[in-house]
UniProtKB/TrEMBL annotation:
Superkingdom to which the source organism belongs: Archaea
Family of the protein in this entry: Belongs to the short-chain dehydrogenases/reductases (SDR) family.
Name of the protein this chain belongs to: Short-chain dehydrogenase/reductase
Keywords, alphabetical: Oxidoreductase
Signal peptide location: none
Listed SUPFAM superfamilies: NAD(P)-binding Rossmann-fold domains
Entry keyword Aminoacyl-tRNA synthetase: no
Single GO molecular function: oxidoreductase activity
PANTHER family linked: NADPH-DEPENDENT 1-ACYLDIHYDROXYACETONE PHOSPHATE REDUCTASE
Organism name: Halarchaeum grantii
Organism classification: Archaea, Methanobacteriati, Methanobacteriota, Stenosarchaea group, Halobacteria
Amino acid sequence: MTSETVLITGASSGIGHATAEAFLDAEWSVWATARDESDLRELREAGCTTAELDVTRPAQCRDVVEELLTVEGRLDCLVNNAGYGQMGAVEDVTTRRLNKQFDVNVYGPHRLIRAALPHMRERGEGTIINLSSVSGRVSTPGMGIYSASKFALEGLSDALRGELKPHGIDVALVEPGPVETAFSARAADELEPVEASGAYDRVYRFFEDFDAVSGGFASSQPEDVAAVVLEAASTTDPDPRYPVGPAARAMLLARYAPDRIRDRVVDLLYKLA
Ligand code: NAP
């Protein structure tokens, strides 16, 4: 019998890279994908099959899934990991940048889910794991665009879980707090061209003072997240949501506080900046 097969997006670095290694160690057949296949050389040498996949390209999403099925004959788990953070005050971020954020973080997973599901439904099994974030549960000033994309991914996943239950397919969300990856450097790159209106200085000051994106001492390692993704893929009845790291667990408590109290605490934190 062929081994269980996983398809991972955004495996060139960080959580995606660590996830590919974790599945390899667990003896899965791993299809590690990235926009630039040469960034996957290390994973290919370790035993992964690699492929070029930019999740914003619909035909490429379909082709990679088709090729995987031709070669492996089965897709047991899809890990929608590729993503980045567009930071900035909501007013300051253009609609073009909002579109780009959704193209990668929401439409990309949707394209791959649609490509994978006919096969998974036919087999009556499979797991879809969507990399969300604590920002998919709690939205704070300066993170509105990124949060909106992750809230969308959460909404999509909750509905999908119910739709796929009768078909034997599981859907799990993984919700890390800050993780030490290239994420914060990419977020800084995406923030740089955003034209600040001058009305939200305290928001940007908070980012600088509190290291709000990278999380400082409270951050997790990509391997911690990878272990959780593997656990969700390997269990017969995965949890709907897996928060990862101390910051995620603490911040998710804020989700259960009344909105006005949460707003007051956030306001106080931003005033301190
Ligand atoms: P990372 O090291 O920057 O990795 C992001 C990956 O996504 C890279 O491999 C990147 O590929 C890929 N990617 C970006 N745009 C893509 C596209 N259009 N098509 C295909 N791949 C694309 O960051 P990470 O922390 O591992 O992030 C992985 C996921 O975890 C993201 O969904 C992120 O939102 C989520 N997350 C991260 C944190 C954190 O603090 N790090 C916290 C919560 C959730 P390239 O090399 O081609 O750019």
